[in-house]
Amino acid sequence: MNIHAHTSPAPAPAAPARARALWARLRAGEAGLGDVPPADDDLPWYLAALLGIAAWVAAGFLFGFFATLFTDLFRQPGFTGTLGAICCVSALGLMRYARGKAFVEQFAVALSLAGQVLCGVALHEALGDIEPHALGTRLAWAGTSALALAMVLLGPVALHRFLSGALCAAALALTMSIEASLPARAMAAPLLAALTVGLWRVTEWAPALRGGPLPMPARLSPLAWGITLVALVMLWMGADLGNSWEFRDKAVTTVRMWHWLGSAAIVSLLPLCAVWLARGSAWRWRWVGAAAVFALLLAGAPGVAFGMALVLLGFGLHRPALLGVGLLGMAIYLIRYYYQLDVPLLQKSGWLLAAGAALLLARLAGRRIAPEGVA
Amino acid sequence: MHDSLRVWFDTAADARLLRAWRRADALPAGTGAMPVPDAAQWRALLDRLALWLGVALCAAALVCFVAANWEHLGKAARLYGLQAVLVATTLGALWLGLQRAGGRALLWLSMLVLGGLLALIGQTYQTGADTWELFALWTALALPWAVAARHAAHWLTWAVLLNTAAWLWLGLQSWWWWPNEHLLLQLGLLNLLLLALWETAGRRWPEFGGRVGRWLLAAAAMVPLTLYAMGEVLDSDGVPLTALLAWALATLALGAYCWRMRRDLPVLALLALGIIGVVATMLGEWLLAGVDEAPSLLVIALAVLGMAAGAGLVLRRLAREEAA
Question: Of A145, A294, A363, nearest to B52 (Cα)?
Answer without folding.
Answer: A363
